[in-house]
TrEMBL record, chains A, B:
Keywords: ATP-binding, Kinase, Nucleotide-binding, Transferase. This is 1-phosphofructokinase family hexose kinase. Belongs to the carbohydrate kinase PfkB family. InterPro entries: Carboh/pur_kinase_PfkB_CS (IPR002173), PfkB_dom (IPR011611), Ribokinase-like (IPR029056), Tagatose/fructose_Pkinase (IPR017583).
């Protein structure tokens, strides 16, 4: 199975309101809830692609219970989340029906105790023993040490399980140094890590910091990959319009499934770009449109990148 | 005991954000949760005044479970809520820390089935047999007939239990016609019911529609009461500054506790105004400040109202 780790799971709530006006009262016309946090999104896409997938991380309180209930309805994803005392956070996306714009409200995560973090590390090592690959995704909740991902990367590498890291800030900086197989920063995370806003230079620099392969997601421009097998740029044939929520998570699912299936890098990148684009165009945020995905798959352009390095 | 009915209970969530900017992403710095819906607020104040109080109405889903968990920590309020299949709604108050202004997002209530409504009516009649008074509070969730309060008023009157109605719109219009002992509309509800924006005239008119006593809450101006014993205006000695959330519910608790204790109308009105004002000035929305309440109690001015009727 493929393992995805979401230390800061969330209950993602979407509210539709006729028009958002600050300092007034709104009747919410539509409420949708889904289990959230990047690793859970990655798992949903992997399961839809036909992979066996197990999710782990933390879940607690009433919202944690709801996340697990909703997760149990996601075909194919096995729930190996660890219960914690704190409450799983909610995120609220308020969609203004008049403009289509979204206002996001994100609760802080639950405080994780040292005992809970230790229990997680033990459970994680156990789960890795039957994993073909692992994705470490998203932010860290309060109480989890900033070097957490570095430690989880080292554990995976000691057990020879390919590991992909998708996070930002200091957890990314430390995680990269532990030499993960793949990191997938977006443009902002890459710039924060390297100090460079020039993607080509920054991607190369991120690899020098320790990652075996760096796949930078550049929004509608697609992906830029520096790998031991070569350097590529992968772009969708059309500029997709829609909701980019979850597009990066779909790219991670594409990369990881391609790795597990032994696909060469260009095929992995095509799949990641097609999934990502089909997520932007899907009517429900975070889902991907299968017909669009299948249509795009053969039409993604993957071109070798000529690099100075 | 005093019974309070909240057909549309809620989980009241308050978010504090540094500054609310539509169409951007916000980190919530503080999250508070409390059991909500007007009848639950009334019950909390009655319990704080030393009364035995039972709450009934509907609770369902994960938010319903949370409401009941939080309610169980409110000393003195007995939980007689009926479980339903639908999910209890959330309300979210987003407080802008920069300005102090609040943006409110209210989910719709759960759909109540005919069987659930029938079960409630039977449970309500049973609870009334040990009640000294009952308050019917707030909006109706989908599925509950618009004449629901009229029916609940008639049941209470048939069992000789004094009944106070605090709602608006068509449920108020129908409820008043069933001759409740007290209705407590605010200025907007009163104007909607009677078509008049002149409080004195509108209060008199509301009484003619069937209520034995009408107590109109006029915000910082206090209360205007038309009762079988006389007409009064009750006003706080100072204009309170603060959060008016729950002030009307505190007024209901004041009126109902005074009725049960056999206080004359002027004393009931003083208590209601003092509680209401002490709720506006309290640091936590919906709570009342006991010291302010006790200080104000003797200083509320209750003056007989000279009426043309």
């Amino acid at each position: 199975m493929i393992l995805t780790v979401t230390l800061n799971t969330a209950l993602d709530i979407t509210y539709r309101v006729p028009s958002l006006r600050p300092h007034s009262s709104h009747r919410v016309t539509e409420v949708t809830e889904r289990p959230g946090g990047k690793g859970l999104n990655v798992a949903r896409v992997l399961a839809a692609l036909g992979h066996e997938v197990t999710v782990t991380g933390f879940a607690g309180g009433a919202t944690g219970r709801t996340v697990r209930e909703l997760l149990s309805r996601t075909a194919g994803a096995v729930d190996a989340l660890l219960p914690v005392t704190g409450s799983t956070r909610r995120t609220i996306a308020v969609v203004d029906a008049a403009t289509g714009d979204t206002t996001q409200l994100n609760e802080p995560g639950p405080a994780i105790t040292p005992a809970e973090w230790s229990a997680f590390q033990a459970a994680y090592e156990q789960l890795l023993r039957s994993a073909s690959a692992v994705a470490l995704c998203g932010s860290l909740p309060p109480g989890v040490p900033v070097g957490a991902y570095a430690q989880l990367v080292r554990t995976a590498r000691a057990l020879a399980v390919p590991v992909l890291l998708d996070t930002g800030g200091e957890p990314l900086r430390r995680g990269v140094a532990a030499r993960p197989d793949i990191v997938k920063p977006n443009a902002d995370e890459l710039a924060e890590l390297t100090g460079s806003h020039e993607p080509l230079r920054a991607t190369r620099d991120a690899r020098r910091r320790g990652a075996h392969a760096v796949v930078a997601s550049l929004g509608p421009d697609g992906l830029l990959a520096h790998t031991p097998d070569g350097h590529w740029r992968a772009a969708p044939p059309v500029r997709a319009r829609g909701n980019p929520t979850g597009a990066g998570d779909s790219a991670v699912a594409g990369l990881l499934s391609g790795l597990v299936e032994g696909l060469p890098w260009p095929a992995r990148l095509s799949r990641a770009v097609a999934l990502s684009t089909a997520t932007v165009t899907a009517p429900t945020a975070g889902d991907f449109d299968r017909a669009v995905f299948e249509d795009l798959l053969g039409r993604v352009t993957v071109t070798p990148e000529v690099s100075a390095a």
